[in-house]
Design goal:
The complex is a heterotrimer of chains A (about 150), B (about 120) and C (about 325). Chain A has three helices and seven strands. With about 150 residues, chain A is an alpha+beta fold. Chain A has a single domain, classed as Chemotaxis protein chec, CATH 3.40.1550.10. In chain A, strands 1, 2, 3, 4, 5, 6 and 7 form a seven-stranded antiparallel beta sheet that branches. In chain A, strand 2 and strand 3 form a beta hairpin. In chain A, helix 1 packs across helix 3. Chain B has one domain: Response regulator (Rossmann fold, 3-Layer(aba) Sandwich), CATH 3.40.50. In chain B, about 40% of the residues lie in helices and about 20% in strands. Chain B has a five-stranded parallel beta sheet, sandwiched between helices. Chain B is globular and about 40 Å long. With about 120 residues, chain B is of the alpha/beta class. Chain C has about 325 residues and is α/β, with parallel strands linked by helices. In chain C, helix 1 packs across helix 4, helix 2 crosses helix 4 and helix 5 packs across helix 6. Classes of the chains: A alpha+beta (about 150), B alpha/beta (about 120), C alpha/beta (about 325). At the B-C interface, helix 4, strand 5 and helix 5 of B face helix 8, helix 9 and strand 4 of C.
Chain lengths: ~150, ~120, ~325
């Protein structure tokens, strides 16, 4: 199945809008909290990933600086950042990735299936997929990025 | 006065926490399940919630399968089923409603959105 | 920059009094953000100073500006539900009986803001079993803000906006996905005509059957409120209907309106219009389990035994006892 060249591909702005809605609903009520741009992610990062199959084959990744991942888990669980552990971080990053991913999926050719999220510490390499979009953002001084990947590119 | 019971079904413990907090804030008692199969098991054990908030993508038994299973049983007909999920395509919402879900909340949502939907359903005055 | 708990409580109280909207805890950032530009434009050092002034003086105009800044985007689809249930169950059937000669119904959403109200009215009309191709229903949506009108005309709403107040079956029936947004489908959109209009100035409009003037009067001082109601009454048909916002009333402002209860909905009619026929078994409410089998009985705004009417022209007028609630 060929991907039609006429199909709308979500823009970096779209990825940002979706991420912003998730942030504002659960993590940070301040609309100015999440800003576009900022510094790049370092090697240390937490990566959440959901994969897509069906009409669209690829993945959506959410990468956060470790401090941002911790702060996100703290916000989601209503805990102090110092109290969150790897289990909370994995759950939180997984669910946030699920929410971002599900909303991005609705803009892609369908029907497609969303996998359960996977969360790793570090950078994730998915063989056979190419990045097609990336939005880089900053939250409370920490970098994060949302990217859309497609099989075959 | 007896509180109403809500069942929150989601594989994310963060989401169960958030929804649980919202529902308690609205006056419900809350029971949780991490997937559709465990939720069915709880229903079969005699727990009778007024409403179930159901995620779609979960391991073992997903939310759509859960809705189908609940709507098949006469003794569970009174349970209001509200999907709370990131699946946001029109076709998915249609599928869920056709399977018997009464309402549908797209993630991300605000607490107000949940309260609104409950009011629409008549579960909350 | 963070305002004190006392200042926030004062503002929350002010908003609650004027609009019945609750600014719960966690909304401090909203107050700070929304009032920042107002504070700046009004020449205050910061938001705290702005609030301080309002606390000290009785500055009415500033109070209203603050309330407006904080509540403008609090609109949602089918806001408060009751008026739309009343529209569907009582008013449209009543007008279908009364307007047989013209087969025309005109509804005005005054102060339509970002459009959720006129589109909610349009959805109610489109779904109504009595409205067929023989009927012309026109929905006029006006606002003073050209910016708001443009947004309303675009008929595009975010995921967060469509999550509010809109039953899922209506979402899938009357909206289509449009990138990250949802857009009202043409069949519903085409019922609505948008026009800029300033209620505080004289205007010309055709005869109107139903006016939605909800949470608009709060932004005016008393004198202007009276003028606005007078202008509205001038274009409202003698047997027409006026909806105000939840915390609003014509009492003390205009004697020529009488209050009528339609189930749990409060509506105002020109004096002498009386009470419309209330169906004993009406069409199901906009959304609600009452229409679905197997869900047990739940309160529905107008279901139940026949409601006693009351003599037309009685003051504090035509109130109908609401049906017993569960």
């Amino acid at each position: 199945m060929e991907t039609s060249t006429m199909t709308y591909v979500p823009s970096a702005d779209d990825l940002e809008v979706i991420t912003r809605e998730v942030w504002m609903s659960f993590l940070d009520g301040d609309p100015a909290g999440l800003v576009a741009g900022g510094s790049a992610l370092g090697e240390d990062r937490v990566t959440g990933c959901i994969q897509l199959s069906g009409m669209y084959v690829g993945a959506i990744m959410l990468e956060l600086a470790p401090a941002a991942a911790q702060a996100a888990a703290a916000a989601l669980f209503g805990m102090a950042p110092g109290d969150v552990g790897p289990v909370e971080v994995a759950d939180a990053v997984g669910e946030i990735t699920n929410m971002v991913g599900g909303n991005v999926k609705s803009m892609l050719p369908g029907p497609s299936t969303l996998s359960l999220p996977a969360v790793v510490y570090g950078q994730l390499t998915l063989p056979g997929v190419q990045m097609v979009r990336r939005a880089e953002l900053t939250w409370r001084g920490q970098p994060l990025a949302v990217s859309l990947w497609r099989q075959g590119g | 006065m007896l509180s109403l019971l809500a069942m929150v079904i989601d594989d994310s413990s963060a989401m169960r926490l958030i929804l649980g907090r919202i529902m308690r804030g609205l006056g419900f008692d809350v029971v949780e399940a991490p997937n559709g199969a465990e939720a069915i098991a709880r229903l079969e054990s005699g727990i009778k919630p007024e409403i179930a908030l159901v995620d779609w993508n979960m391991p073992v038994m997903d939310g759509l399968a859960f809705v189908n299973a609940v709507r098949k049983k006469e003794q569970w007909r009174d349970i209001t089923l509200m999907m709370v999920t990131t699946e946001s395509e029109q076709s998915q919402i249609v599928r869920a409603l056709a399977a018997g879900a009464h309402e549908y909340v797209i993630k991300p949502f605000t607490p107000d959105a949940i309260a609104d939907k409950l009011a629409l359903l008549g579960v909350l005055a | 920059m963070t305002i004190t708990a006392g200042a926030f409580a004062f503002i929350a109280d002010l908003v609650k009094q004027m609009t019945a909207i609750n600014l719960g805890p966690g909304k401090e950032y909203l107050v700070e953000n929304r009032l920042a530009s107002l504070a700046r434009d009004a020449g205050f050092r910061d938001v705290a100073a702005l609030i301080g002034r309002v606390q000290l003086s009785g500055d009415d105009r500033l109070r209203r500006q603050i309330v407006e800044a904080l509540t403008t985007n609090e609109t949602s689809f089918f806001r408060d539900r009751d008026p739309f249930n009343a529209l569907r169950q009582v008013i449209i059937p009543d007008l279908c009986r009364k307007r047989v000669a013209t087969h025309r119904i005109t509804i005005w959403s005054a102060g339509c803001s970002s459009g959720q109200e006129p589109y909610s009215i349009a959805m109610t009309v489109v779904d109504h079993p009595l409205i067929n191709s023989e009927w012309t229903v026109e929905i006029l949506a006006t606002d003073i803000s050209q910016e708001m009108l443009e947004k309303a005309k675009s008929a595009r709403y975010s995921q967060l906006e469509v999550n509010r107040g809109l039953p899922a079956p209506l979402l899938v029936r009357h909206f289509e996905r449009c990138e990250t947004d949802w857009r009202v489908v043409p069949a519903v959109r085409n019922l609505v005509r948008f026009q800029q209009l300033n209620l505080a100035e004289d205007f010309e409009l055709p005869w109107i059957d139903v006016v939605f003037l909800r949470n608009v009067l709060i932004y005016f001082d008393t004198t202007t409120k009276i003028e606005v109601l007078r202008r509205v009454r001038r274009v409202l048909r003698p047997d027409g209907y006026l909806f105000l916002g939840g915390s609003e009333t014509t009492l003390g402002l205009d004697d020529e309106f009488e209050r009528v209860m339609l189930g749990s909905a409060t509506v105002y009619r020109p004096r002498g219009a009386g009470v419309p026929e209330i169906p004993t078994e009406g069409a199901a409410p906009i959304a609600g389990p009452a229409a679905r089998p197997g869900l047990g009985s739940r309160p529905s705004s107008l279901a139940g035994s026949p409601l006693p009417g009351s003599p037309p022209g009685s003051s504090l007028a035509g109130s109908i006892n609401p049906p017993g609630r569960r």
